[in-house]
């Protein structure tokens, strides 16, 4: 069966990922970074739309996310810790971090709030128990657990007015919303923003646009959802891949939606059917996104 495709969705990098994740737009470089968190991959990539080139770095271990560092370079969220990376030299320096039991948990997706604090989720390394935690990390301090009880922590985003934090738990499949206190860096009032029970896919990575709509990759359903502030589906963007994993706004005016995807778990027949599976995709979103803040590290 041919998967319906929204006009304009294109594969923009020839690199094929096992599990593409963590897309991050760098305005200073006019480039998109992302990682392959697949079991055998251990790579960081950078795509430059002006020229269409992709650079690839080998990483020492499996990564889960990428953030900008305020003093330059990147903060890599590895599954068992954080590190600072200088893409120019390839140097990677671990960041000391207490407060996380990596014997039980592994990090997954992350995002930086507008005060420069890193928020990162975890989940059970064995994928059996809801022991995942949403952490807040400030430089020089232990990771602080802000909420817990998640099966597979994933995308994190904030509303344009900075009053709401959104957080995806891919299993069983819910997006939560919290009241966000920007000054204190606190959350309260957890509530279900959208429940994916009965749907073909589950929420994975997400990004916020300038109009206050949340864009979410629905992995397994082959589409990106745009949700209004009440949690209603405003539109669904059909893709030529069944497993989109995450999204980021970038390009001129932050109007290009970049989409990572995966081949992991696909049958050989599905890979043949989905020629762009595992590739970085891009499409004109028709609306601008928000610039991602840098971790004050």
Would you mind describing this structure in some detail?
The protein is mostly beta strands and 297 residues long. The protein has one domain (10-295): 6 Propeller (Neuraminidase), CATH 2.120.10.30. 2% of the residues lie in helices and 51% in strands. It is built from one helix and 25 strands. It has one helix at residues 268-273, and strands at 10-11, 20-26, 31-36, 43-48, 53-58, 63-69, 74-78, 81-86, 91-95, 105-112, 118-124, 132-137, 144-150, 153-158, 164-169, 174-181, 186-195, 202-208, 214-219, 223-227, 233-238, 244-250, 256-261, 281-284, 294-295. The strands form six sheets. Strands 9-8-7-6-25 form a five-stranded mixed β-sheet, with no helix packed on it. Strands 1-24-23-22 form a four-stranded antiparallel β-sheet, with no helix packed on it. It has a four-stranded antiparallel β-sheet with strand order 2-3-4-5, with no helix packed on it. It is globular, with a radius of gyration of 17 Å.
């Amino acid at each position: 069966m041919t998967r319906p495709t929204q006009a304009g969705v294109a594969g923009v990098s020839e690199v094929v990922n096992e599990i593409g994740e963590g897309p991050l737009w760098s305005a200073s470089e006019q480039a998109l970074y992302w990682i392959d968190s697949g079991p055998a991959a251990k790579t960081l990539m950078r795509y430059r739309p002006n020229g269409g080139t992709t650079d690839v770095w080998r990483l020492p271990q499996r990564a889960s996310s990428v953030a900008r560092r305020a003093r330059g370079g990147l903060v890599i969220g590895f599954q068992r810790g954080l590190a600072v990376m200088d893409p120019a030299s390839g140097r990677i320096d671990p960041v000391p971090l207490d407060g996380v039991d990596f014997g039980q948990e592994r990090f997954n997706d992350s995002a930086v709030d507008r005060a420069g604090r890193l928020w990162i989720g975890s989940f059970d390394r064995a994928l059996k128990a809801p022991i995942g935690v949403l952490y807040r990390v400030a430089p020089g301090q232990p990771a602080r657990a802000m909420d817990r009880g998640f099966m597979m922590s994933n995308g994190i985003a904030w509303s344009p007015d900075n009053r709401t934090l959104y957080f995806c738990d891919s299993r069983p499949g819910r997006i939560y919303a919290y009241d966000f206190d920007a000054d204190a860096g606190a959350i309260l009032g957890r509530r279900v923003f959208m429940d994916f029970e009965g749907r073909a896919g589950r929420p994975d990575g997400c990004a916020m646009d300038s109009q206050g709509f949340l864009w979410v990759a629905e992995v397994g359903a082959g589409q990106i959802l745009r949700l209004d502030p009440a949690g209603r589906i405003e539109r669904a963007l059909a893709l030529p891949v069944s497993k989109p994993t995450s999204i980021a706004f970038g390009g001129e005016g932050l109007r290009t939606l970049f989409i990572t995807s995966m081949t992991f778990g696909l049958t050989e027949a599905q890979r043949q059917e989905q020629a762009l599976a595992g590739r970085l995709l891009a499409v004109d979103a028709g609306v601008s996104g928000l610039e991602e803040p840098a971790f004050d590290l």
